[in-house]
Amino acid sequence: xxxxxxxxxxxxxxxxxxxxxxxxxxxxxxxxxxxxxxxxxxxxxxxxxxxxxxxxxxxxxxxxxxxxxxxxxxxxxxxxxxxxxxxxxxxxxxxxxxxxxxxxxxxxxxxxxxxxxxxxxxxxxxxxxxxxxxxxxxxxxxxxxxxxxxxxxxxxxxxxxxxxxxxxxxxxxxxxxxxxxxxxxxxxxxxxxxxxxxxxxxxxxxxxxxxxxxxxxxxxxxxxxxxxxxxxxxxxxxxxxxxxxxxxxxxxxxxxxxxxxxxxxxxxxxxxxxxxxxxxxxxxxxxxxxxxxxxxxxxxxxxxxxxxxxxxxxxxxxxxxxxxxxxxxxxxxxxxxxxx
Length: 340
Fold this sequence. Notes:
It is built from 10 helices and 10 strands. The protein is α/β, with parallel strands linked by helices. α4 runs parallel beside α6 and α5 crosses α7. The model has no long low-confidence stretch (mean pLDDT 94).
């Protein structure tokens, strides 16, 4: 069966075609660059650009695999979480196509897509495993019993990792996307020149994340520094990156030990960070813990992971998925999966 995946949760417009026998046939992503002008996502502009790009991407995807819409057997789209303006575009286009073609339409949880993007790689974990989801809007530790059965062990209670990175990078005068540019700057930093606190690591039983205090600490520190000095800025970026990575590592280790699991899947846009991968590999090696990462194109928001989840849901739940109502939920959680 051929599944079309459509992803429009934030500022990336993506269309993918997935074959349940051969895997991803194409995975086209258009990243909106206009938001760098404003230093962050502008929801209305994001929605307008999705509307402008989504049909050309669908045509491009079909042309690439030499198929047409009549060859598509089902459509999966991101129902949430995400920006409501952006989600609406993908949902309406997906439902319109599915209705016209009289094929199943499958709403997909964006978080579940990130969590299982690893299954599109050759190297895959077996169940159960623990997932560390680190993206722009989410920081979570998740116990994955099997597909469709999860337990959230810890989550961000204020700012997610990606949000925190963007805010600090803005204070350092870096362009959007902040996290990516902050990581570039940190490469020029001097190790151990500055030390920032690791938040919420005093109690091992608490697997939640809080980065607002760290953000405030760094913000106050920056106010006292000369940001015209490139080395000073690089040292701050290096120390801040260290604090983030160290905190994520400590919490992940606690979760793995507590639940006696030796497999960690790291997913989401921040998981593409090379330094994070290197430090995690070095530190977890001594505990004989297996690490799993997706390739960089599958780390970011993409429709390939959405199409894959759509195929799993259609086959495992055995629903017809001919929906009369358009389903979107900007605050969708893994706990809400029974609604989809």
